[in-house]
């Protein structure tokens, strides 16, 4: 009788425990979903019409001057950089010395090569920001993803987290290596309502600066208004929850190095549920299993105690 | 602050160095200097007559609907198919010399017509129009084929006498 009761009790408590965990897990999930951040409604963005880029690299030079970056390895009017490839045949990427780079893609069936400007896309829900354990990153209401190098500890988690492989690292600094990336010229321009230096410097007018929501509408008008000119996709509208920088192309995006498998969910969504469980597990499990331990050892303790009693 | 102002001049105020361009209305037989934007590059010595000849007197190829002909851009046609000839056919009468000035950005922000929001500035209009045609017809397409780089330009592009010195140290990343 006694034995049965205990078993029932354990069964009951186990079921109750699981129910509690499940219920609180559900509650967390619901609140997390309710808190999904679709981006600041009035945030600014840049629409890049890659069909117009001629690969003059003026944006790279403008970025270098605006951000006070070190002297480049080669002049900005040296187009041999387009033939440079990293290990594995990958095109150039952003570095501590260059927050933006232009790469050339020779696409079959296209008369001229396509040039693609590459820099931070300034995600609505940046993976770098959510991965940073010292909160060095900030998504500003203007749309820029900025960071505070003073609190950066150089762990490089953001470099792993970024789906676009944007943050670079100052490997050359032995004393204070930090992460380096495009900040959309936030300090000097964006917060005063002005477009980033690259946008303004472009002789071809490749980039349109404006409110992100207007740019999305404009991009779709451009696609619809010029049948056959553009691929019917605005890269960055939905990718990883949306980005401030968005792209129009006349060739399929996967042919010019864009990752088409990132999905529409912000990167944080993949770990949010799990991370929400962590504090709860840490609080409930120790108490729960201590209880089980006490229950399972009580009989033994009683046995030991009973002869004395 | 002084440094920032310098940068702004270098990057933004492309018109700072030269007097505003006034396009002559009677343009046949003229070579004129497109110099309102001269900064990193010298002005362009533009042979208008030669272009008129090359394009067989079809002004609308460059001046699109301001010459009284319907526009070619599909997005412009719905509103501008019956637009009359413009008062001034000069590029700068529509395409802003300073599209990114605070005043012009504020106007653009309020403009509900999204296509007008994306209207290229004068520099972009020149380049899009000239380069697009030059690529097809075999005209000059290199930056310095049309305009020589200024000393300021050499500094900006880290080239010429401002070119980076070849690296001698080993092991740099």
Secondary structural class of chain A = alpha+beta
Quick one: biggest sheet of chain A?
3 strands, mixed
Low-confidence stretches of chain B: 1-26
Low-confidence stretches of chain A: 19-34
Strand tally of chain B: 2
Rg of chain A over CA atoms, rounded to whole Å, is: 27 Å
Query: How many H/I helices of chain B?
Result: 9
Structural class determined from secondary elements of chain B: mainly alpha
CATH architecture of chain B: Alpha-Beta Complex
Helical content of chain A (DSSP H or I, runs of 4+):
25-40%
CATH topology of chain B: Cytochrome C3
CATH-defined topology of one domain in chain A: Alpha-Beta Plaits
Q: What would you call the shape of chain A?
A: elongated
Instruction: Indicate the mean pLDDT of chain A.
Output: 87
Instruction: Bin the helical content of chain B.
Output: 25-40%
Per DSSP E runs of 2 or more residues, the count of β-strands of chain A stands at 9
Topology:
The complex is a heterodimer of chains A (309) and B (173).
Chain A: H1 2-34, E1 44-49, H2 58-66, E2 101-105, E3 114-118, H3 127-131, E4 137-139, E5 145-147, H4 157-161, E6 168-169, E7 179-180, H5 197-201, E8 207-211, H6 212-225, E9 245-248, H7 269-305
Helix pairs in contact in A: 1-7
Chain B: H1 2-11, E1 31-34, E2 44-47, H2 48-54, H3 60-63, H4 77-80, H5 102-110, H6 114-117, H7 122-137, H8 143-146, H9 151-156
Antiparallel strand pairs in B: 1-2
Keywords:
heterodimer, A: 309 residues, alpha+beta, Alpha-Beta Plaits, 3-stranded mixed sheet, two-stranded antiparallel ribbon, 7 helices, elongated, B: 173 residues, mainly alpha, Cytochrome C3, two-stranded antiparallel sheet, 9 helices, disordered N terminus
